[in-house]
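Predict structure. Chain length: 183.
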Amino acid sequence: MSDQPTSTVAGGQDEVGAPERVSIGEMRRARALRRLVLLLLLAFLVLGALNFFGGRTAKTQAKAGDWQLEVSYPRTGRPGIGAPLQIQVQHQGGFDGPVTLSMTSDYLDVLDVGSIHPDPSQATASDKAITWQFDPPPGDTLSVSFGAEFEASEHPGRHKAAVTVLENNKPVTHVNFTTWEVP
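Prediction complete.
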């Protein structure tokens, strides 16, 4: 047996517990790197607290004659979070009869719609669209809100939609929009 202590670290013959020599420059670089990592982590947390990485909403609108359509929709979202969707229809002079709206059914497939307010008086579905008929509201504005969230099963990617106002089963005005869903 040898009188010299041996180290099992890296199979070397150094004395046990002998620290590695580090220059002042290496210590400063290591400290600067630690500070940079902490600063990036802090920035990430602050941006998260400000909902920078959360869902975003957008609005689109169209006008044709006496009709105006505005849709507020989720521009980005993730599974399991709310998907605020609101449709507002204005008709100068009010509505003479029921208001008919149609929306792309593929778009609604990625949402879990819990409620529609006000309740439609009639709903019809086809393979391409869902059409709702609403009783005429007092005044010249109908606002329809959807209690919806992105389905828990992921549908990542781009989802296109169209909302159309119909009068006598003919399109009066419409808007197109796109929502991006991320995992």
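Summary: The longest helix spans residues 24-49.
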